[in-house]
Amino acid sequence: MLQDTLSVKVTRSENSRIGQVDWENLQFGRVFSDHMLVMDYKDGVWQQPEILPFANLSLHPATSAIHYGQSIFEGLKAYRQDNGDVIIFRPDMNAKRFEESCERMCMPVVPNDLFVELIRKAVEVDSNWIPDKEGYSLYIRPFLFATDGFVGIRPSETYKFIVFTCPVGQYYNDPVKVKIEEYYTRAAVGGVGRAKTAGNYGASLFPARKGQLQGFDQLVWTDALEHKYIEESGTMNIVFVIDGVLVTPSEDSDTILRGITKRSVLEIARSWGVPIEERKVSVQEIVDAHKNGSLQDAFGAGTAATVAQIVKIGYRDEVLELPAIETRHLSNKIKEHLNGIKSGTVKDDYGWCLKV
Ligand code: PLP
Ligand code: COI
């Protein structure tokens, strides 16, 4: 059973794979650091967490996460700053969102402080895997899934919490092309759109594939009821700049993932006095703004995607071409500022960086 003072048993890998990494050609999500942190839940309590050499898992064929989808995850990043310090960007926010996902999916909550401390330990043990090249980082993937070997629909009684890490570069190498989706649905009111649960991503694959076959990188989801209002993209929240105003779908409904990158973007922009409107954003408004020339910028915000500028928006039979990237003064400036906070070249006035 978990003690008050956290002790994590560490079994170090005897054969580090770090020498085999092709650092010049890092592909997102394909390279895994040497260790993983594992913490089981059983008999109503979290068990002692352990750091182990990264390895395959052995699972019961009836593992309930596989059959019934009790599976949630997070994504956050650690950076090596210019002075050598290692920081994790806003892990407290991921802890809170993880808690909300746990609750929505009927899973035991990992207490926020414990979540952050375990992430810190997982990063610490593999800190030599953090690339120190600009634009590179250590992607951290905490996840929780139901492990009961049981056939039947009820919440599992046992779970596994795991954290692994991956050295990564860019998720999108180029500005992105998105398509406004008006038939398929990501999330409906009352559903699980706000939770970072595996099924949301599984369900998006087929529509996203259709969009990719038409030349788009990602879909922009619209509301399930009328397909009239913009919600978010597949891996990022979405922000527009219309006539100097940052306009973004509000997260009041439970259909949109509450993104930490977008929250950070808005906090930075607000501190500069940029007008911000978090509200319903209709597809028609964006199409009209493009037509009358007031749509100055559109970008996605996400941990993996960072600030990803959008160059084309597919809408029905049209493709809206957006202004050249050099003219995107606001998103370029926000991107630079956010990157600066993470790399330590810009003062972290917000206290967003947790030192490892
Ligand atoms: N929306 C979806 C569906 C996502 O998968 C992500 C990525 O985590 C985001 C938005 C952006 O969230 P965050 O900035 O917290 O990474
Ligand atoms: C993230 O940005 O962390 C995501 O979850 C996007 C994707 C890698 C699933």
Overview of the structural elements:
By secondary structure, the protein is of the alpha+beta class. The chain has 2 domains: 9-168, D-amino Acid Aminotransferase, Chain A, domain 1 (2-Layer Sandwich), CATH 3.30.470; 176-343, D-amino Acid Aminotransferase, Chain A, domain 2, CATH 3.20.10. 24% of the residues lie in helices and 29% in strands. The protein is built from 7 helices and 19 strands. Strands 1, 2, 3, 4, 5, 6, 7, 8, 9 and 19 form a 10-stranded mixed sheet that branches. Strands 10, 11, 12, 13, 14, 15, 16, 17 and 18 form a 9-stranded mixed sheet that branches. Helix 2 packs across helix 3 (112-125) and helix 5 (260-271) crosses helix 7 (329-343). The longest helix has 16 residues, at 198-213. It is globular. The model has no long low-confidence stretch (mean pLDDT 96).
Low-confidence stretches: none
Any idea what the radius of gyration is? 21 Å
Which H/E pattern describes the elements? EEEEHEEEHHEEEHEEEEHEHEEEHE
The tally of beta strands, per DSSP, is 19
The CATH superfamily of the largest domain appears as D-amino Acid Aminotransferase, subunit A, domain 2
Q: Give the overall shape, derived from the CA principal axes.
A: globular
Helix and strand content put the structural class at alpha+beta
CATH architecture of the largest domain: Alpha-Beta Barrel
Distance between the termini: 26 Å
CATH topology of the largest domain: D-amino Acid Aminotransferase, Chain A, domain 2
